[in-house]
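Internal tracking record. Fields below are filled automatically when a chain is submitted to the structure queue. Please do not edit lines marked as system-generated. If the sequence contains nonstandard residues, flag them in the REMARKS field before resubmitting.
Queue: standard
Priority: normal
Entity type: single polypeptide chain
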Amino acid sequence: MRAPAAPEARIHADSSFEQGQKSLKSARVRVRGTSQVSIDETGTARVSSVLRPFLDDLASRRVSPHTVRAYRSDLEQFVAWLTAEGLTVAHLDRHVCRRYAGQLGMGTSATSTIARKITSMKSYVAFLSREGVLGEDCGSIDIKAPRRPKTLPRVLSTDEAAALLDSLPDRLPTDFQPDFRVEIRDRLLLEILYGCGLRSAEACDLTISDVRRDEGIIIVHGKGEKTRRVPYSQVVLEALDRWLEVRPQVEHEALLTTMTGNPLGTSDVRRIVSSAGKRAGLTVHPHMLRHACATHMLEGGADLRAIQEMLGHASITTTQVYTHVSERHLKAAYLKAHPRA
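SYSTEM-GENERATED OUTPUT FOLLOWS
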């Protein structure tokens, strides 16, 4: 058990709301301005020194790289907040952690963002406790994250999905056009996201070898280094063949690339989908195509378990949200079609 910090080193719990928000703002500015937090106190530097081992520990447990990046961003803000408050590693206890959580709750961040930041902090402090940096009493901090509101995903209708896809060409041009290769690639990306229900990162990770033509499936590399086999349609295959005719000749096997041959990133996917949406008069983000894939399959009679397997959901509970979306579709159809509705 570690000795309690000296009273003069503590920041009193009755610090003003304004001061706390200034510290949070300062922390956010520090994180945005540099990839590594600037530390000027010995104790706080010690916190920072175990940040990399903590992130390495996450990676060793097959946590998604995207999740690791989220943890890093959250924890850099937490460390920067400690520095702004004049706190060191000696002050990391339940009271300090609760105070940080309280400051987060008084801000303007979304409930889901606050919940994630609190989870990141608790995991980090538990790691410090296991490593002997903090006392064992810090291993389990009882801070409840705010409940996330239950909302149904916004789902494109079949007509909207068709309009989105048709905003890009479905065949090679007969005459040379400077941007036709980009449009052919973008059409393939949209067909994969909607036709196969892939996440953005999964689409970016696809390689040419992942397409098993003899089986009519693609090998998808999902979260936690789990792979799954997802069927694809003739429409996807045709879009794939058009792209392979004009894809830059590069040594690596990344299926979707820039025109200079670099693999696409998730930010590229967001930009491409958003741009296609604007052409179709829609506000769209990539995950909406995944939602649309699942919902339209369910409405077409697909089995919920088959959809779960296709999407790579670990729990059927995650997939069941689409049953609620389909119920909404059913009610709308009933009110429109039934003579007594």
